[in-house]
Design brief:
2 domains; disordered N terminus; seven-stranded mixed β-sheet; Rossmann fold; alpha/beta; 15 helices
Length: 405
């Protein structure tokens, strides 16, 4: 053991300062080695999920905010970050008065812009644009051959939800009434009555829409605008029956997007629901109401009050929220992508708050109505931080051939 004695004797002669320095150096080396080992073993952080919603204007932002709620739950349980951006083609609204070809051109341009700017998935919140889903899907496939670019339409999910709610009514009585509020293009396309009839595997009896021409509030788009009312019937086995009533109300979208005051908005809702009430049998109020234009939930309080007043029923109707439907679809898609990325250690509160801040939905619009958009966001979500609103071109009615990638 003489070597140990000599080592201890040598160590005693080394100055204390040098012994501490050697100990600190060794400790730092161990920490660095441990960090290196963890970096080699730990899986790389999951890439962020970049989500986009698309609509003809502000309305799809409500869908983006519903997706934001789902994102908060995902961030708590999965190792990822999430960004959400709403694209609103306000320059070219209203889509509801455009031809199917024009809608397909504008919808394709907006969805492609979202993918160009990094979106992993795009939710077409716009019902009118969704009527041209097949053509938009073709444009995306042509631009990104062989690549997976998910594009989700709101129509299928909404029709399935309508059937679920109508089945609840039909379980209690033999007839049910379904009121659809949509744009003229959506009403004329008949996508919802026909999809519902397919889900029931039953024939659909369609009437021609009735047209009610009214003065236009936003006269830059012309002197008049039409409201439409269209009726259909689905006859089911066992004597059961569904009346499907579609209302395409005039002026509503432009009143919202161009900043009309609250009085004008309320009067427009009262007028159009009054038109509808005159076309329905007495006590034929709705069992289910579908807001199948993303703008219309902005009038939710007024619509509910006027439906109760002008279209009374013994039972309050059930309302379909398309934003929540889209959020559920997003959550399922996100969970599938994030399999194997469950967090092993809960996030600290400040870490979660930072991720939630990144996931707050921002807005890109094509028109020059940024102030109106900011005010709408503040009105609808007064307790949330103001979104970043960017103005840029999202497309035009001049078709541009997609560039393969």
């Amino acid at each position: 053991m003489r070597w140990m004695d000599k080592t201890l004797e040598w160590g005693a002669r080394v100055p204390l300062r040098l012994r501490r320095l050697a100990l600190a150096t060794a400790s730092s080396a161990l920490v660095a080695l441990s960090a290196f080992a963890q970096a080699v073993v730990a899986p790389p952080a999951a890439p962020p999920l970049r989500v986009a919603t698309f609509d003809s204007g502000f309305g799809g932002y409500l869908t983006a905010k519903s997706i934001e709620v789902s994102a908060a739950s995902l961030l708590q349980h999965y190792d990822t970050a999430i960004t959400i951006r709403h694209y609103g083609d306000t320059k070219n609204l209203p889509y509801g008065e455009k031809t199917p070809g024009q809608i397909a051109t504008l919808g394709s341009a907006g969805v492609l812009r979202a993918f160009e700017q990094g979106a992993d998935m795009v939710f077409i919140a716009c019902n009118t644009a969704s009527t041209q889903y097949d053509r938009i899907r073709q444009a995306v496939d042509a631009a990104y051959p062989g690549q997976v670019k998910p594009v989700v339409s709101i129509i299928d999910a909404s029709a399935k939800e309508a059937k679920r709610l109508l089945d609840q009514s039909l379980a209690q009585r033999p007839t049910a009434t379904f009121l659809i509020m949509a744009t003229p293009a959506t009403v004329r396309a008949m996508v919802y009555p026909r999809q519902l009839a397919r889900l029931y595997a039953a024939p659909l009896v369609e009437e021609a829409p009735r047209v009610f021409t009214q003065p236009r509030w936003y006269t830059a788009n012309g002197p008049t605008i039409d409201s439409l009312i269209q009726k259909s019937a689905i006859n089911l086995p066992g004597g059961r029956h569904i009346d499907v009533i579609q209302l395409a109300p005039a002026n509503w979208v432009e009143l919202i997007e161009h900043g009309a005051d609250a009085k004008l908005k309320r009067e427009a809702v009262q007028r159009d629901l009054g038109l509808l009430a005159k076309q329905l049998p007495k006590a034929a109020g709705p069992d289910v109401v579908g807001y199948f234009c993303t703008h219309y939930p902005i009038f939710d309080d007024t619509i509910r009050a006027e439906v109760a007043l002008q279209l009374p029923t013994p039972r309050p109707p059930t309302y379909i929220s398309q934003g929540q439907l889209m959020a559920r679809i997003f959550q399922g898609m996100a969970e599938e992508r994030l399999q194997g990325r469950q967090r092993k250690v809960p996030l600290a509160a400040e870490q979660l708050q930072a991720l939630l801040g990144t996931a707050r939905a921002n807005i890109t619009i094509s028109g020059q109505n940024g102030p109106v958009t900011r005010q709408l966001a503040k009105t609808m979500f007064p307790n949330d931080p103001a979104p970043v609103v960017t103005e840029e071109d999202l497309g035009s009615l001049t078709p541009v051939a997609p560039t393969p990638r």
